[in-house]
Amino acid sequence: MTITELRKKFIEGSYTPLDAYTDTRATIDAKDQDIHAFLDVYDDGRESAEKATNIYKEKGEETPLLLGMPLAIKNNILIKGKKATAASKILENYIAPYDATVITRLKEQGAVFVGSTNLDEFAMGSSTENSAFGLTKNPVDPTRVPGGSSGGSAAAVAMGAAVASLGTDTGGSVRLPASFCGVVGFKPTYGRVSRSGLIAMGSSLDQAGTLTNSVRDAEILFNSINGKDPLDATTINVDTYSQVRAKDTYRIGIPRDFLSNEGMDPDVLQVFNDTIENLSKVGHEIVDISLPLMRKGLAAYYIVMPAEVSSNLARYDGVRFGLHVDGDSLLEDYMKTRAEGFGDEVKRRILLGTYVLSAGYYDAYYGKAEHLRTMMREELLQVYKNVDLIMTPTAPTPAFKIGEKSDPLSMYLADIFTVPVNLTGVPAISIPAGTVDRDGISLPVGVQYIAPHAGDERLFDFGKKIYDEGVMQSE
Question: Is 281 a catalytic residue?
Answer without folding.
Answer: no
